[in-house]
Amino acid sequence: MKLFRQTVYQALAAALFAGLLLTLLQQLGVTPLILQAEQYELAGTTSHAATSDHSHSEAAPGHHQVDEWAPQDGLERHFFTLLSNSLAAFGFALILIAAIRAGQLAGRWPQPGLPGGLAWGTAGFLIFFAAPSLGLPPELPGMVAADLEARQLWWLLCTSSTAVALVQIVLGPLKWKFLALIPLFLPHLVGAPQVMGPHFTHPDPTALAALHSLHTQFIWATGITNALYWLALGAACCWLVARAPLSAEGPAPA
Questions:
Q1: CA distance 125 to 108
Q2: How many Å apart are CA 70 and CA 63, to the nearest integer?
Q3: Does residue 140 contact residue 220 with C-beta atoms inside 8 Å?
Q4: In a designed cystine with 18, which of 89, 119, 183, 203 is the match (CB 3.0 to 4.6 A)?
Q5: Nearest to 121 by CA among 254, 21, 7
Q6: Which residues contact 16 (CB under 8 A, 6 or more apart)?
Q7: pLDDT tens track for 63-95
Q8: Could you give the CA distance from residue 128 to residue 226 in angstroms, rounded to a whole number?
Q9: pLDDT digits (tens, 9 = 90+) for 226-246
Q10: Whole-angstrom distance, CA of residue 125 vs CA of residue 228
Q11: Please, where are the H alpha helices in the chain?
């Protein structure tokens, strides 16, 4: 029970740090691209509504008057972004700390410390972002996507398969490490669910070109942001675990 409480406290501390860092990085490189895409999305919706026929316009008001809730721009949006980032980081931190503790017992995995933290962070980045992004790149507002449930199932397959592959690479006997190729490539051989047709449906060709350019920038920005986030989260988790090593006496004094 003591170890469980300790793990939760460590995960909370690491999550607050990593969540704040991710939010700041998003505000610098990712959010501006999202806001630009949202402007094109709004303009495209307005243009489509203006060119719709009269019968469609009469049928549409009941649909368009139902607005989904969204946080207001400014402090409220920043707060909910920080909250969601920290909650996600808390879940990932629990997984990382459990894995680091298991690594301590196994004695063969990356140990607590800066090099170990960067190794664990790299593993998290590869499992939860890089590998899934090969099949399902990050999406901008207004993009047409495949069925959500199908994407979630494929994401779970990809992350779990990549994790198994990394474990085999790190812990498997040298002559059997090649077996890691099976789970590593399996989800990509199955194929991620894809939408049939264009990803953007804006009626203006100039806007479409701009959206495709924004999407390319968005993929790079989210990739760099998530890489820094995962490295920071791995380093924070390892630093916290190193301050409270597994022992009968409990946490080491600060």
A1: 20
A2: 17
A3: no
A4: 89
A5: 21
A6: 86, 89
A7: 334 455 566 666 777 888 999 999 999 999 999
A8: 10
A9: 999 999 999 999 999 888 765
A10: 9
A11: 2-25, 31-50, 54-59, 61-64, 75-106, 114-125, 131-135, 148-171, 181-190, 205-242
Structure-token pair, residue 65:
């008057």
Structure tokens at 113: 């410390």
Distance between CA 91 and CA 50 in Å, rounded?
Answer: 45
CA distance linking residue 206 with residue 152, whole number of Å: 32
pTM of the model: 0.82
Tokens linked to 61: 């008001």
Residue 71 one-letter amino acid: P
Mean pLDDT for 96-118 is 78
Tokens representing residue 245 in the block: 């090593």
Evaluate whether 108 touches 171 at the Cβ level (below 8 Å).
yes
- CA angle 70–76–78, rounded 5-degree value: 100
Q: Tokens for 126, please give them.
A: 């590869």
